[in-house]
UniProtKB/TrEMBL annotation:
PROSITE patterns: PROTEIN_KINASE_ATP, PROTEIN_KINASE_DOM. It comes from the Eukaryota. This is Protein kinase domain-containing protein. ATP binds at K59. Residues 28-290 form the Protein kinase domain. InterPro entries: Kinase-like_dom_sf (IPR011009), Prot_kinase_dom (IPR000719), Protein_kinase_ATP_BS (IPR017441). The lineage of its organism: Eukaryota, Metazoa, Ecdysozoa, Arthropoda, Hexapoda. Keywords: ATP-binding, Kinase, Nucleotide-binding, Serine/threonine-protein kinase, Transferase.
Length: 397
């Protein structure tokens, strides 16, 4: 993945040349494509203001491109969850815009690819690096579970590597809440995830606890980091299930003598077929192997803050309500007497939502959209004229 900023080539400009003028009036600009998902394209992007310049990644999702349940279920959930997340080991979402049918998700740019690519170049990880990255992913997952959110697609490709070689969890396209509209636990029945990481309870096809399935996937991820191979290479679902149930897997013979007993034990306990005796994420985080490095025994202040915030938020009634309110809800807000109904904004709770727009107005254009602030979702006017966009935002903010 190249980190050099290039103007987009002729062929790539087709879909972004209509959007760039609108974005530029807000300080954002799209550059070359750096990745592609099932229904998305990811571009290198920049945010430029008088105060700062940031390299970003922009995931462009066409709401009309996917199947019906993608547009009505998975995408709205992903957007709602993205704006709620704030954790040092999760790719941060700065701003989300909607232009016509396209959603533009501006997020932190991971300069050094993902863990899968890293292993292709560098081989299996030594235990110290594996522990360092695994701990970061585990803390990210612990934070999600405390918020009542499950990721459901943990894999090496979704563990992105930042400029400073820290790992950040990304891709929340399968994520969902683990509670219902009364805050009570809710199980899953969707068959989702990536094949090698799928747990036996998902294969079984009944209701399953998605948090428990996340721990399984994280166990597979740890196995892969240590071995550069899969615990199960079966492509037949029935055989895979049988092997999973018998715990029929082995560390690679070349790697096994190099690995500590603590890490072998941890992998075994995460790949335990029975959910009720599989470790939960709290036990993973405090496992002997993770705790072995005295430098990272304690949570750093930003890790602790995120965890504390998640616990407080999960107990907040308005958080539960905002997570279940429909995505199409529009909040009408008045700024200096001007009614704005075109703005959709989904920060952590509705309370914050009204707060951020009830700040004294006549703030410089773009301030509520500044990526250093709470993520906002703004639906831009259906136009490709930057003048009209500016006029709209000038009126709105
Ligand atoms: N924040 C980011 N920084 C750098 N590269 C990224 C970032 N987010 C995504 N990418 C790149 O873009 C690719 C596509 O990402 P995206 O999350 O859209 O889909 P995916 O996970 O590959 O697929 P799917 O849509 O099937 O889940 C990734 O594989 C990655 O290489």
């Amino acid at each position: 993945m190249s980190s050099k900023v290039e103007e987009v080539s002729e062929s790539k400009t087709i879909q972004i040349n209509n959007i760039n003028p609108i974005l530029e009036s807000l300080g954002y600009k799209l550059f070359q494509e750096i990745g592609e998902g099932s229904f998305s394209k990811v571009f290198l992007a920049k945010y430029i203001s008088k105060r700062r310049q940031l390299d970003l990644a922009c995931k462009m999702v066409d709401a009309n491109a996917g199947p019906n349940n993608f547009t009505t279920k998975f995408l709205p959930r992903e957007l709602k969850i993205l704006v709620q997340l704030k954790h040092p080991h999760i790719i941060h979402t700065y701003s989300i815009f909607k232009v016509k049918s396209k959603w533009l998700i501006f997020m932190q740019y991971a300069k050094n690819g993902d863990v899968f690519e890293y292993m292709l170049k560098n081989g299996a990880l030594d235990e110290d690096l594996a522990r360092y990255w695994f701990r970061q992913l585990s803390l990210a997952l612990q934070y999600l579970h405390k918020l009542g959110i499950t990721h459901r697609d943990l894999k090496c490709e979704n563990a992105l590597i930042s400029e400073k070689y820290n790992v950040k969890l990304s891709d929340f396209s399968f994520a969902r809440y683990t509670f219902d509209n009364k805050g009570a636990p809710a199980l899953s029945n969707t068959f989702c995830g990536s094949f090698p990481y799928i747990s036996p309870e998902i294969i079984r096809g009944r209701l399953y606890d998605p948090k428990c399935a996340d721990v399984w996937a994280l166990g597979v991820l740890l196995f892969i980091m240590l071995n550069k191979s899969l615990p199960y290479s079966e492509s037949n679902m029935k055989k895979l299930y049988e092997k999973q149930m018998k715990q029929d897997w082995h560390f690679r013979s070349k790697r096994a003598p190099l690995l500590s007993e603590e890490v072998k034990y941890l992998v075994r306990r995460m790949l335990t077929p029975k959910c009720s005796i599989r470790l939960d994420i709290d036990s993973v985080v405090s496992s002997d192997w993770v705790m072995k490095d005295s430098n990272i025994k304690m949570l750093a202040p930003d890790e602790q803050k995120a965890l504390d915030e998640a616990i407080i938020l999960r107990s907040d009634e308005s958080y539960i309500q905002s997570s279940t309110c429909p995505m199409t809800a529009r909040k009408k807000v008045k700024v200096d007497g001007a009614q704005m109904s075109k703005v959709q904004i989904f920060p952590r709770t509705w309370t914050e939502c009204s707060y951020s727009f009830c700040l004294p107005s006549r703030r410089p254009l773009g301030l509520p959209l500044d990526p250093t602030r709470t993520t906002v979702i703004v639906e831009l006017p259906d136009t490709d004229s930057s003048h009209e966009a500016r006029q709209f935002l000038g009126m709105a903010i």
